[in-house]
Amino acid sequence: MGFENLLVDIADGIATVTVNRPKQLNALDQKTLEELSAAFEQAGRDKGVRALVVTGAGDKAFVAGADIAAMSRLGPAEAREFAALGHRVFGLLEALPIVTVAAVNGFALGGGCELTLACDLVYASERARFGQPEVNLGLVPGFGGTQRLTRRVGPMRAKELVLTGDMVDAPTAKAMGLCLDVVPPEKLLEHARGKARTVASRGPVAVATAKRLIQQGADLPLGEANALERQGFAGLFGGEDAKEGMRAFLEKRPAQWKGT
Ligand code: CAA
């Protein structure tokens, strides 16, 4: 499927989705969000895709936010639709049963920072800057930022970022848990793909189950979350992969995953 504002490349089971509007610092307008939705759905359907990497075109920005020029023309009802679209697309990304990795190559601001928050793993280049600068525009985050940011870094750090609108550099972002590693720009994509490849080599049903348990459990009381884990753990014993994984260990050979 051809896209206007995205580049999609699939190699070795890893789909790389690049937001490609470098003149607008890869800002997200409606079309780009709709294309992201289609790309994520496609990756979720394609059994050959075992991991997804998201990045931005050019060496300046990952995604500098929602498209401010487009947003400036919206009334309240259209703004609600726009936010709902962003929520739907990022919810779709978050719910994919494969690992999703953000390779943050530059500015990740507003909707760009929110895009990283919907990914499982986030790696940043030394040039990356993270922030939720919406208050500078008289706005608040609208693609899940007030909620996912709080869950990722805690309420006080979330408030500092959202209420000041200040950007943080990559080492500061790492210290607060917004990204995992900071690497030189030329190494970023390979670093992110390397992590994606590692996860993609593991049992796919186990990976999908573990991801779901961590995400669903985070919103539940511990007792209910642990009940969910017991259910997920036991469920794997009815499939082929867990049998194969344990048999392969005992036979001292690599496992051959069937994805069941
Ligand atoms: N939307 C639309 N266009 C954008 C944009 C955005 N979010 N960010 C940058 N651009 C455009 C600029 O308008 C500029 O276009 P022109 O060349 O046509 O003038 C081009 O990208 C380059 O940007 P700058 O000249 O501003 O580059 P800079 O190096 O001086 O500054 C920057 C870089 C600090 C990232 C600055 O561009 C900036 O502050 N961008 C806006 C960041 C922002 O506020 N993001 C939040 C958006 S709101 C949001 O995302 C809401 C939500 O949660 C849903």
Helix content: 40-55%
Strand arrangement within the widest β-sheet reads 1-2-3-5-7-10
Which radius of gyration do the C-alpha atoms yield? 19 Å
- Compressed to H and E, one letter per element, the order equals EEHEEHHEEHEEHHEHEHHHH
The helix tally amounts to 11
CATH fold name of the largest domain: 2-enoyl-CoA Hydratase, Chain A, domain 1
Poorly predicted regions:
none
Shape: globular
In total, the number of strands is: 10
Identify the bound ligands: acetoacetyl-coenzyme A
CATH architecture of the largest domain: Alpha-Beta Complex
Report, as a whole number of angstroms, the end-to-end distance: 28 Å
Q: Given the helix and strand composition, which structural class is it?
A: alpha/beta
Query: How much of the polypeptide forms β-strand, as a percent range?
Result: 15-25%
Task: Please tell me the total number of domains.
Answer: 2
- Regarding CATH, which class of the largest domain? Alpha Beta
Summarize the structure.
With 260 residues, the chain is α/β, with parallel strands linked by helices. Helix content is 48%, strand content 17%.
